[in-house]
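Supplementary Methods S3. Complex input for the adenosine-5'-triphosphate-bound model.
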Amino acid sequence: MPANNNDAHGGTGPAASAALDGNSPAESAAPVLRTEGLRVTYASQGSPVHAVRGIDLAVAPGELVGLVGESGCGKSTIAMAALGLLRPDVATVSGSVIVAGRQIVGASGKELRAIRWNRVSLVPQSAMNALSPVLTIGEQIVDAVRAHERMPKRQALDLTVDALERVGLTSSHARAYPHELSGGMRQRAVIAMATVLRPELLIMDEPTTALDVVTQQLVLDQVSELSRELGFAVVLITHDLPMLLEWAHRIIVMYAGSVVETGTPHDISREPYHPYTDMLLRSFPPLSGERRELAVIPGQPWDLRRVADQCLFADRCEHVTDPCRRGTPRLTTHAGRSVACFLRDPPPPAARAADTEVTQGRKSK
Ligand SMILES: Nc1ncnc2c1ncn2[C@@H]1O[C@H](COP(=O)(O)OP(=O)(O)OP(=O)(O)O)[C@@H](O)[C@H]1O
Ligand SMILES: [Mg+2]
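Predicted complex, serialized as structure tokens:
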């Protein structure tokens, strides 16, 4: 799953056309999600918030992709852009988002309704706490099915029970109200709801944050199993990098609306290429081996109202050098791994000047 940032450079870089690599399934199949030059700018009062800054990424059928980064880096915004949920009065979306072969940017309400749930489903942040308390789990899933597919109630109920059984629940859970289920069961019910119409892509936004670690693991195992059984790809959004190291085929690390690194869990845990990924890894206690002091990432996140005129991580980076203050590194691919950092990909002197001009040119717009 290649990914690329175009914030300071406009067009698509080498990573955009890189082949899907590594351990993910269905490497050569057309991606179920592809974004190209995706930008999302919120029309915040005062100055616009550049929440997603030109991202190219692709997710292969059946692939388990983890999207990780600190709070406010644009993870949920990407999820909402993939489902066409950003209203034009709230945000400007540009670039391209293709889900299962359909363009989402600029699609009509009718086109989006045909894609959502059937092709792509979203389990939004805090979804398990957003279930209606006055309807049973079964009624809520049946309603969701019939809102997207014309079918008799009986058939929708059969599909509902089937979806619940796939996540380890039963028809008696269909008759229960949300408060009668544990957090883990509610989360599974939400996953059953999101997968009942067999989408090709499931996006889960922080699905396990409110669960204890054992239940977290059970829910994630269930999702992987379901993905293998039904063949859908998953994009799992989280702050929890160690959790992704255990679960994902591939990890995308985001910082301030950009992708800074992508790689397999093996590559990323063995040798993180980007200083932010490295600090993120060191900020969690190790699962095994000796205890070590946990890293704290100093300073403040990049102000998303600022246009990029330098590496967005430079002010917090332990390895910052002069070029980092003069231009924005682009995501480049090295032997199947992508990273946006001048430590790995130093700009030639001429390119540094060009980068500065590009970023300054944008700034003056
Ligand atoms: N409707 C909005 N208007 C203005 N700014 C917004 C709006 N929604 C989100 N933002 C800003 O866009 C940025 C990205 O938000 P987003 O919710 O995508 O982050 P996130 O990575 O999902 O964070 P978290 O991990 O806390 O859920 C944040 O700075 C946020 O404040
Ligand atoms: Mg979020």
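Residues 213-230 form the longest helix (18 residues). Residues 3-119+199-363 form a domain with the Rossmann fold fold (CATH 3.40.50.300).
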